[in-house]
Amino acid sequence: MICAPLMYIVYLALSADSSVWSRLWNTRIPELLFNTVSLAVSVSAGTFVLGVSLAWLVVRYNFLGRQVWEWALVLPLAMPTYVLAYVYTYLLGAGGPVEQAWQIWAGPEGRVFSPHSYAGATLVMTLDTFPFVYLLTRAALLNFNLSYEEVARVCGASRLRRMLTVTLPLLRPAIVAGLSLVILYVVSDFGAVSLLRFQTFTYAVYQQITGRYDQTAAGVLSLLLVLFALIFLVIERWFRERSRFYQTTGRYRVPARKPCGPLGTGLITLYMVVVFGIAFGLPALLLIHWSVSAVAEGAVDVRFLGFMRNSVFLSGLAATCALLIGTPLAYLASRWPSRLNVLCLQAAYAGYVLPGPVGALALLVLFSHLAPFWYGTAVVLIVAYIVHFLPAGLQTMEPALQQVTPNLEEAARSLGLGPVRTFRETTLPLVQGGFVAAWVLMFLQCMKELPATLLLRPVGFDTLAVRVWLEASEEYYKLAAPSALLIVIMTLPALLLLVSKDWRAA
Amino acid sequence: MKPIGADERTAAQEGSAHSDEQARPLVLELRKVTCAYEVGRAAISDVSFSVREGEILCLLGPSGCGKTTTLRVIAGFEPVVGGEVYLKGQLVSAPGVLLPTERRRVGMVFQEYALFPHLRVSENIAFGLRDLPSVQRETQVHAMLAMTGLTGLERRYPHELSGGQQQRVALARALVQKPVVLLLDEPFSNLDPDMTRKMREDVHDLLRRTKTTAILVTHDHEEAFAMADRVAVLNNGCLEQFDTPETIYHTPSTPFVADFVGQADFIPGTIANGKVLTEIGEFPNQGGYQGGASVVVMVRPDDIHILPVEHSGARILARQFRGSENLYTISLPSGRVVHSSETSTSVFPVGAPVELQIVATHTVLFERKQTQELGA
């Protein structure tokens, strides 16, 4: 069931008439490919510089407020791309505050770059995704064995040579894994590029479905997108695997942090303030400001509560179903890793390479053919959520189950408990924490999901995420703010949960 | 039985080593070195010793005694707050003076080897040879590979090697630079026990063949005795004794050293008529203590022999078969316990009454209050 959408996309694309292929090849594909690739490249470059430099500063230097910044720099992940994109369409838009500020200096003809551009998309995506690189690089730096640098010193290497030939190469797997996540995020993102009207594969698939009703063409584009995403998923896995060899086991010493003088502290703090401010602080303040005035104008009414109810209802149902489906998968694979069981688990991860619009397209077509009576109901949407977010849930559930050694269950059995009581009294209490975390994660992912909801929701059944997007595309900034703020606030605990799990251990 | 000749041989060896030492130049000298990680809490204090060319020195002590700190001071990773360190006659460390590690030409083998995981074996070994032309570099790396028995593994990555092979690469990487002195930080602690003995022999042989001056840190006295020309025993950041392994074993200068480098029993006694009177017999008063003074005599299991007799206050409490010897635990009439080492084939039943024979060639005496901190 989980794999069906992916297979269907492949089938749809390959069965397409060759004329569709050649038409797309001659018109849309080169442009889309160029846009998607160049966006991925520029965002990678941006996140590399920001992520690595910030991680280096917080791990290797000691300055006032370091611990606060260490946490704060993760917060941009709590901001869905469409929220950040919508804030920036206001900030950088014609007549927006940035342009006004610029005109004071450059005269009334001064113009800033439009947010609806390559540069705008790059800026928004970079600010939203650099924490991936930051987090992984930081973890690798914290795990870094000082002996490597000391050995290099004993071998007579200068400071620069040590950094270039020892430290950076040893961080390479972590950095590449982080960049792969960033690229995966960029190519499958729909919210930001659609609001910024930047033509990438996801946006084009959406347009083919809604504007042209051309499902075959959408299928072709989807296949290319899936292939693209798959490449980076494989790269990320490969480098994570490799990074195992780069970690030292046993006893080792961690480099001491270098204390900073007042000047150093000032410069570092300025850098952190600027990055954090434009990525999270300023947008968050703006959202709060808009929300306050929107509430004063009476925007939070019965309708708003309805959207909230819809969001919570859908997400809760989807997360619960996903947990019920995921438990046997994870349990079987960790206890009896036969080929079939492991294959089932791997198949569930397929949802990862299905960007929102693509999964939605597949389900749209599948349901309209196989079960037309469900078409246009919330059932389709819930299935879409499960397909998309079950992998994330499984990643949390699997380690929790693996921590419970079979010996514990065997001990319970030897003490006279039946299999059901063993599970209820031994396994369940031990995995509870992990499963609750998985549920929370899936719930919140569903809350902020945009493209599939847009395409599959029953008529008139809007969620918070959909409202943000609809309001923002019409440039009703204030109206979109309460929903957006609510999403950001609800995402924060999940983010902290995710990060704190391997914060120091990482 | 310990033949008297053993001691004569030891003395003879010491003599020859002594005359040999005069010929060989000093490579490293520590003069009253003090090092503190935190102000007011010295990790090592007033440590002085010197190493001559080609010598192997062991820094021996329990964990936290400052032996690794001493090594890091020599390598230049830690600054000193007092004293001086000389390397080949050049002052390299003193308060306010710190020649950076990269200019000291020391080699170092870390406890966990710290092989660069992103470089192949040959690249790891060649890391410190950057200034040489590539042909020369190649030749040296190959010579080193052959010498350490790593030929054929040069294209491998560190994670594809066994523990022993990794250690050899770490050694090769340090030796290929022809260091002034090679520093080894607990090099055998990450190996399987049966591997350790073989590696000790190999490393000892390699250091001798390359005439390398080496300092080895260890907490294992057997390792120190097997490897070292001289041993420095450290405790709580202070140098307790600096001598040949034989002297350290037979005539330890403090109760701590006596207890740390092997099994030792401390028998209380008093001085009377120029002799030490104890529960197990009389000993000569070699310490020159005043009459009536309270002292303890240190005896090692190989100084005590037992004979089964009909009646005696001393009984065998337990026997531990160790392959090459039998170690007996004997309870004395007072309840005190001493140990005796007998040959592998001398088997007596537990509970049998025995008579003790002391065959020590030299008596080691300490003041009684000195041993109290050991709990003896």
Commentary on this structure:
The complex is a heterodimer of chains A (506) and B (376). By secondary structure, chain A is an all-alpha fold. Chain A contains 22 helices and two strands. Chain A has helices at residues 4-14, 18-26, 28-60, 66-72, 81-92, 97-106, 118-142, 146-154, 159-188, 191-195, 201-210, 215-243, 262-296, 302-335, 339-348, 356-370, 378-403, 406-414, 419-448, 451-456, 464-473, 477-501, and strands spanning 61-62, 258-259. Chain A has a two-stranded parallel ribbon with strand order 1-2. In chain A, helix 1 crosses helix 16 (356-370), helix 11 (201-210) runs antiparallel to helix 12 (215-243) and helix 12 (215-243) crosses helix 16. Chain A is globular. In chain B, the strands form five sheets. Chain B has a six-stranded mixed β-sheet, with helices on both faces. Chain B has a five-stranded antiparallel β-sheet with strand order 2-1-4-5-6. In chain B, strands 14-13-12-15-21 form a five-stranded antiparallel β-sheet. Chain B has helices spanning 5-23, 67-75, 121-126, 134-147, 163-175, 193-209, 221-227, 245-250, 255-260, 368-372; strands at 26-38, 41-52, 56-60, 82-87, 90-94, 97-98, 106-109, 181-185, 214-218, 230-235, 238-243, 265-272, 275-278, 281-284, 294-299, 304-308, 315-321, 325-331, 337-343, 354-358, 364-367. Chain B folds into two domains: 24-259, Rossmann fold (3-Layer(aba) Sandwich); 266-372, Nucleic acid-binding proteins (OB fold (Dihydrolipoamide Acetyltransferase, E2P)). Chains A and B meet through helix 8 and helix 9 of A and strand 7 of B.
